[in-house]
Amino acid sequence: MLTASEGAETLLREVRQCRRCAAALPHTPRPLVQVSTTARVLIISQAPGSRSHARGILWDDASGDRLREWLGLSAAQLADPAAVAMLPMGLCYPGRAASGDRPPRPECAARWHDRLLHLVPGRRLTILVGHHAQHRHLPELRHLPMAERVRQVAHRQDLAALPHPSWRSVLFMRRHPWFEDELLPGLRAKVAHWTR
Ligand code: SF4
Question: In the chain, N or C: fewer CB atoms in 10 Å?
Answer without folding.
Answer: N
